[in-house]
């Protein structure tokens, strides 16, 4: 495909132009959470490598993860993970060719936040209850 | 009407793998790994919760269990494949310079493999004896 010439031509409307809607926000959130999870894999790798390095490194990693800041990051991480999961489930519905009418589309977007938020709280309640 | 420089019809080309030689491979692999991630991520969360606040010997006992190690390995591979394709789509959407795009796609692949290798090595080392 030929390269696009950099001429002074008008651009198509973008984020600053469109009125925000649930579907738009959740579409952007799906991509943003994907990028965050991409970066977050470094934390999982660091944690696993620390565990493989021995007791001292593992205890340090667990202490960081258990501190208030560590828990804050983990809480955000778990929400981002579960929200990306909710977005993925929404995409599965669309892949089946369903859920494209305006009302369903809007509900899928809205309730994906309720779903991921609720699931995050549930995960933390379980995590704090069993330890 | 386009001129045919080859004798193959456009339809026969479409039925093959197209100009990128991969057809819908990435699309399908992204869905496949999304399904496996759905299950494996929930299992991974369960493992992390089980490890929270555990001293090293107890954590090692969990992580070195063969079933845990296998599931962790599957999670790592599935996750890294999925994130590599996802990031490539983002790069192709936003990076328009040909050189920068190729460099970014390469760096993306290297990152995914490096993270995957580090995680896999750690899981195997833990499993085979700490």
Strand content of chain B: under 5%
Indicate the CATH class of chain B. Mainly Alpha
**Level of helix content of chain B?**
over 70%
Unreliable spans of chain B:
none
Termini distance of chain B?
A: 67 Å
Q: Describe the biggest sheet of chain B?
A: none
What does the main sheet of chain A amount to? none
| Coarse shape of chain B | elongated
Count the helices of chain B. How many?
A: 5
Strand content of chain A: under 5%
The CATH architecture category of chain B equals Up-down Bundle
> Helix count of chain A, per DSSP?
4
Largest interface: A-B, 35 and 33 residues
- CATH class categorisation of chain A: Mainly Alpha
Helicity level of chain A: over 70%
Mean pLDDT of chain B: 90
Report low-confidence residues of chain A grouped into runs of 5 or more.
Answer: none
Indicate the multimeric state.
heterodimer
**How would you spell out the order of helices and strands of chain B?**
HHHHH
Note the topology.
The complex is a heterodimer of chains A (about 130) and B (about 130).
Chain A: H1 22-53, H2 55-66, H3 68-95, H4 102-130
Helix pairs in contact in A: 1-2, 1-3, 1-4, 2-3, 3-4
Chain B: H1 10-15, H2 25-51, H3 56-63, H4 66-94, H5 98-129
Helix pairs in contact in B: 2-4, 4-5
Question: How would you portray this structure in words?
Answer:
Chain A is 77% helix and 0% strand. Chain A has 131 residues and is mainly α. The longest helix of chain A is centred in the first third of the chain and has 32 residues. Chain A starts with 21 loop residues before the first helix and ends with a helix. Chain B is mainly α and 130 residues long. Chain B has one domain: Fumarate reductase/succinate dehydrogenase, transmembrane subunit (3 helical TM bundles of succinate and fumarate reductases), CATH 1.20.1300. Chain B has five helices and no strands. The chains are: A mainly alpha (131), B mainly alpha (130). The interface between A and B is medium-sized, with 35 and 33 residues.
């Amino acid at each position: 495909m030929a390269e696009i010439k950099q001429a002074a031509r008008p651009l198509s409307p973008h984020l600053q132009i469109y009125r925000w809607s649930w579907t738009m926000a959740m579409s952007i959130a799906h991509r943003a959470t994907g990028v965050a999870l991409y970066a977050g894999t470094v934390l999982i790798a660091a944690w696993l490598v620390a565990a493989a390095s021995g007791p001292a490194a593992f205890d340090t990693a667990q202490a960081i993860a258990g501190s208030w800041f560590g828990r804050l990051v983990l809480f955000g991480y778990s929400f981002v993970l579960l929200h990306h999961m909710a977005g993925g489930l929404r995409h599965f519905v669309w892949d089946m060719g369903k859920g494209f009418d305006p009302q369903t589309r809007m509900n899928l977007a809205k309730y994906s936040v309720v779903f991921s938020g609720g699931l995050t709280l549930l995960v933390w309640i379980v995590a704090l209850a069993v330890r | 009407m386009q001129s045919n420089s080859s004798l193959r019809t456009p339809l026969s080309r479409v039925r093959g793998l197209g100009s990128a030689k991969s057809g819908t491979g990435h699309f399908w692999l992204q869905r496949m790994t999304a399904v496996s991630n759905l299950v494996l991520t929930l299992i991974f969360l369960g493992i992390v919760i089980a490890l929270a606040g555990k001293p090293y010997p107890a954590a090692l006992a969990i992580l070195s269990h063969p079933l845990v190690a296998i599931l962790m390995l599957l999670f790592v591979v599935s996750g890294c494949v999925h994130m590599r394709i996802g990031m490539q789509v983002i790069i192709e959407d936003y990076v328009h310079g040909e050189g920068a795009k190729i460099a970014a796609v390469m760096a993306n692949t290297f990152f995914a493999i490096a993270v995957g290798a580090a995680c896999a090595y750690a899981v195997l080392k833990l499993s085979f004896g700490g």
